[in-house]
Design goal:
The complex is a heterodimer of chains A (424) and B (171). Chain A contains 16 helices and 2 strands. Chain A has 424 residues and is an all-alpha fold. In chain A, a hairpin with a 2-residue loop joins β1 (103-108) and β2 (111-115). The longest helix of chain B is centred in the middle third of the chain and has 25 residues, at 52-76. The chains are: A mainly alpha (424), B mainly alpha (171).
């Protein structure tokens, strides 16, 4: 009983941590990647003592700035809705992640605990259902602010979300027919093994359509018409400031993280490491852990040496670069020494694992794999935003209804035919 | 009282309260939002009845799509006109409505036996899952399912025909 309760809490805490801890990282990435794409340097001034950490410190100052600002409610606004709208946006973003499995199961006392906050039979439907509620945060913010720009943003957002939701569901139908289940855990195990079992290889059209719809559902460029700053100032959140604006800002990134996690889970194997299904990982936990530790020691040393070289190269403020020194310790010599110490203490990495230990090693590695995939797609969101221009409104509607919807329907039809053929 | 029964009363009370607020509210937007709350609590009731698929579809279709469209229309319309419409109900319509609602309440009360809220002790294998609902829809009730889809298609075609009359220029 106590074990059950602990595991429930651990699973929910991990789920929240994944979403909330990646948000600042993405905000930093957004600045850094956009700067790189536009041949700028990016955030360069905020520093904590001598450390700027490539602009990560800038994200911290952002938080201080947002907390310090005055929280304004327009006098003609509908106050209850104006107050609750940002909370709805954030709530929905966090809730969607509940059914995404972020790692394989852990065996404790001979019982399996799957690492996802909730394992629902209708998991994919749950994602679609909760994600469709995200529009209320935007719509209520838009209407309650009592401002023409916000209303325009809200109207754009609702019609856009309703249009692309349809394509999203239809794209998923094709993939579901292959997986044979609405449970996300089963979709992941179906994709285990070599990477040509991945949904993106088996169902390329569905994967492409789903990714495009995920962009539309998260209001990211090229689909960020609800904000469209060149046309309607900042769309639905014009009248928001301080921490309530921060909630909208964070919800956008949380939505991106959730969408990345769902894309990775449904079409790119989720937490499964290519060529290493869960059983293989557990059976060979000891040798795999030894290889990982050796790789960490070697890679950490190399990275440390590289950052050490950068340290002596200096930066534009002096002959020595303190950022490089911090990186050398954090991502170079630090992990290398830790991995080396573990190897030395175990006599060169001779581990003995019971079922619990083996499943834990497998779960940690699979979690790392899931996070790598999630971060890649989060990067894709940023990459696309700074590469493509925004759609015009009629182009957006035409793309959704005239091209993507028929394509999704055709994909369902073709998948049904092929599956029927294969069944014979 | 078990935990499920307690949750049933909480969800049921919230659903009823928000449903009443939908009808009595002066503000059309607030009514639509209360409607969403009512749908949410209904979905909670479905979950208590082990009908997870139904709960998810309830939120997806009614809360996520239909009420969004309702809100969309309310925002486009002039809400002050809607408020004026409320006052124009005549006495005949009002009294007829009260009589019909009373009859319906009597009908409901006669069907609901007084007593404890009951939850099924043992459910058949796979109850409420996507698989079992799919089996029912595409096997036993296939004809009804297909007829309903044709009906919906007819409604869509009719809506397009009304909105897009021949010879008229589209806005």
């Amino acid at each position: 009983m106590l074990l059950d309760l602990t595991m429930v809490l651990v699973r929910i805490a991990l789920m929240l941590l994944v979403v909330l801890q990646v948000i600042p990282l993405l905000i930093w990435w957004e600045r850094k990647v956009s700067a790189y794409i536009q041949s700028r340097r990016g955030p360069a001034y905020a520093s904590a003592g001598p450390l700027r950490l490539f602009g990560i410190v800038h994200t911290l100052t952002d938080v201080v700035k947002l907390i310090g600002k005055e929280d304004i409610t327009p006098s003609q606004a509908n106050k209850p809705f104006h107050f609750i709208a940002p909370a709805i946006a954030m709530f929905v973003a966090l809730l969607t992640f509940a059914v995404v499995p972020y790692s394989g199961s852990v065996v404790i006392d001979g019982r399996e605990f799957s690492l996802q906050a909730a394992n629902l039979n209708a998991g994919i439907l749950y994602i679609l259902a909760i994600a469709s509620l995200g529009v209320y945060g935007i719509l209520l913010a838009a209407w309650s602010s009592n401002n023409k720009y916000t209303i325009l943003g809200g109207l754009r957002s609702s019609s856009q979300l309703v249009s692309y939701e349809l394509v999203m569901s239809l794209a998923l139908v094709g993939a579901l027919m292959v997986y044979g289940s609405l449970e996300l855990g089963k979709a992941v195990t179906h994709q285990s093994g070599p990477f040509w079992h991945w949904g993106a290889v088996v169902q390329p059209v569905a994967a492409l359509l789903f990714i495009v719809c995920a962009f539309a559902e998260t209001n990211r460029n090229p689909f960020d018409l609800p904000e469209g700053e060149s046309e309607i100032v900042a769309g639905y959140h014009v009248e928001y400031s301080s921490l309530r604006f921060a909630l909208f800002f964070m919800a956008e990134y949380a939505n991106m993280i959730v969408a990345s996690g769902v894309i990775a889970t449904l079409f790119f194997g989720g937490y499964e490491i290519p060529f290493l299904p869960t059983e293989t990982l557990r059976a060979n936990a000891a040798p795999i852990l030894r290889i990982v530790l050796l790789a960490t020691a070697a890679g950490g040393t190399l990275a440390g040496l590289f950052f050490g070289y950068l340290f002596f190269q200096g930066n534009e403020r002096g002959p020595r670069d303190p950022d490089a020194a911090a990186l050398a310790v954090l991502f170079g010599f630090g992990p290398a020494v830790a991995a080396g110490a573990v190897l030395a203490l175990t006599g060169g990495g001779h581990f003995e694992f019971g079922p619990t230990g083996a499943s834990l090693v497998a779960a940690v590695l699979q979690f790392a794999c899931f996070m790598a995939k999630l971060l890649f797609f989060a990067f894709l969101f940023i990459w696309v935003r700074w590469t493509l221009p925004r759609f015009r409104y009629d182009q957006l509607m035409r793309l959704g209804w005239k091209y993507m919807l028929p394509l999704a329907l055709l994909n369902v039809l073709a998948t049904a035919f092929i599956l029927e053929r294969m069944a014979k | 009282m078990t935990g499920s029964a307690l949750l049933f009363y909480v969800f049921g009370a919230l659903a009823l309260a928000s449903a009443v607020l939908v009808v009595t509210g002066k503000n059309a937007i607030a009514s639509a939002v209360y409607l969403v709350v009512a749908f949410f609590n209904l979905a909670g009731l479905y979950v208590l009845l082990e009908a997870h698929f139904l709960a998810a579809s309830q939120i997806l279709v009614y809360a996520g799509a239909i009420t969004v469209l309702i809100l969309f229309v309310i925002m486009l319309l002039d809400v002050s006109q809607l408020v004026r419409l409320q006052g124009s109900r005549n006495a005949i319509a009002r009294s007829l409505g009260i009589v019909l609602a009373g009859l319906f309440a009597i009908l409901l009360a006669s069907q609901l036996a007084p007593g404890e809220v009951g939850f099924p002790e043992k459910l058949p294998e796979g109850f409420g899952t996507v698989e079992s609902i799919g089996d029912l829809l595409f096997d036993r009730y296939l004809l009804a399912f297909e007829l309903v889809s044709v009906l919906l298609l007819a409604a869509i075609v009719a809506a397009v025909a009304i909105a897009h009359r021949e010879g008229e220029s589209t806005p």
